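Q: How would the structure tokens look for this protein?
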Amino acid sequence: MVLPKVVGKLANAIKHHQIHPYYQPLISARNNTISGAELLARWNHEELGFIPPDVFFQWRKVRG
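A: Here is the predicted structure in token form.
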């Protein structure tokens, strides 16, 4: 499981700007126009590779 390895590295990732925001447009099905955007967090760790948001957000929920 990746979660225990992530626990000690998340604060460092935030401090060193390793978690990047990506904006995904929200498209209206009614008129095919952009109605907003969703912010997605992505972390590409140098040792562990891509860490999905559900893993590092799961840890954050546990820690409070």
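The two ends are 20 Å apart (CA to CA).

The CA atoms of residues 3 and 58 lie 8 Å apart.

Upvote if useful.
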